[in-house]
């Protein structure tokens, strides 16, 4: 593992020092050991296996790539060309047990979604990565987390990490009322749910109307790529520095296997 450091000025003495963490890329065999419905449209699968003994994940929005066969071929017999991979957030890693939890948003279609719906203890897959990420510092005056269902695992992980004295605003979009999930945190959190059933651009509109706290803040956004870009622009229009607004497209309408950094 190698690390480097980055701030918006490129000066290691500047405030708000980001840590770049890199891991050697590795593919690991893993086996489902538990499944748990989380409410809404989210399912948690917990994986075990000796390959996970050295697993590491440094950032709340880091991602791994899960590989399963595109057809009914048993995974141990599948060729690399028969495997389909998709990106997911490592929700929690228990080093003592060597277990990794990953939350799946069970949307309408997709090879990995179908696999997760059917996966029972004993089912196998391959986990690639993570390769590393940029870890935000803890010295901002406040934080903002925003996104749709695909962002909820990262949002939930970040909320669990934040200390009691930290101010954080959350804008979370789901399809309709009743699909919210628990987001426990010790932080001073203001959590707002918005619904696509009411307004297709609910997340962006909520961010446009949001009153930001005083002081310096770091904003993180993820979801559908076009919406994530619009959400980033809405926050930049409020005067947030570009380097303090991170946006990612976790998926793109009409396309598959999209996971991209959203920039201007």
Automatic annotation (TrEMBL):
Coiled coil: none annotated. Pfam families: FAD_binding_9, SIP. PROSITE patterns: FAD_FR (PS51384). Residues 25-137 form the FAD-binding FR-type domain. Gene3D superfamilies: Nucleotide-binding domain of ferredoxin-NADP reductase (FNR) module (3.40.50.80), Translation factors (2.40.30.10). Belongs to the SIP oxidoreductase family. This is Siderophore-interacting protein.
